[in-house]
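Hi D.,

Good news: the full-assembly prediction came through. Inputs first.
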Amino acid sequence: MLLDLSEEHKEHLAFLPQVDSSVVAEFGRIAVEFLRRGSNPKIYDGAARKLNVSRDTVQHGVEGLTYLLTESSKLMISELDFQDSIFVLGFSEELNKLLLQLYLDNRKEIRTILSELAPDFPSYHSLEWRLDVQLASRSLRQQIKPSVTIKLHLNQNGDRNTQVLQTDPATLLHLVQQLEQALEEMKTNHCRRVVRNIK
Amino acid sequence: MELSEYVQKGFQMLADPGSFDSNAFTLLLRAAFQSLLDAQADEAVLDHPDLKHIDPLVLKHCHAAVATYILEAAKQRADKSTLSTYLEDSKFDRERTELFCTEYQNNKDSLEILLGSIGRSLPHITDVSWRLEYQIKNTDPRSHPEISFSCNMEQLQDLVGKLKDASKSLERATQL
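Then the structure:
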């Protein structure tokens, strides 16, 4: 699978052949460091001064490189595909080799970082409940309206997420019945077989 | 139950056989209940040929008065004697009082449901769907508009256990 590089992306990367390969290697190091720790804009200023170019040029160069590395790592493209993808940039063979090496050296770590960044599905943590009876409202006096208030605690991305919900007695019994069916289903031969045989 | 002069005046007009004959009275009474309970009802509810001879302003006044009274009575859970007292004070004859009380009794439950449904509440659970998934590998999670969450066997047992506690508590409360 080849990477599809946008015109803007190619423009940003066009800066790389204009500097020493040691600088490109340094940019690569900065890019991965930014992925690990977050970006530090001051670094761009320092580099811009040393290389005698605008800060924007440096920033785009690093960002372009970062994006190249993350996209490649995310898709886990092969060496050959990586080389073919950057071939369109028209860089020197030396630079191409350097970029490939950067990719191969860092892709495992980049994938780990990316997986930590991806939002995950909320998962159940716990549940609190409370029985309430509404006795009256502004619109109607002398009521007996039972309800069950539920505080659902979910985990998402390591954070606790809380939902406060309500239901009526009939629906509560329905919920219990439905979810007990789910538990029952887990005990069937079919499910047991799947769980046993697919590891 | 405190009612405004406007309502009292409306009832006094409604009591007068000179302004409303039996038929017109019954029609207006039914129109008032219909306006409140029928979601599709509109002003046309007063467009009956047997009401044409009555001054539209009077019609509207009485219609509004009756509707107001009905809502207040339903809200306060007024009993038959409260209704009768008010109607007799408004100079309703025996027949009209009986008719009013009967109509009210017939529509009382619907009115209470209507009034009871007005108000704010927390998001209300209406149903649940579940899916058993054996995770072989991680795929990209998708976002769901409703509340969705995953749980393993233990967590599901915990969730069901807690909901069962709640329903047992509910059962006990109804037996008190």
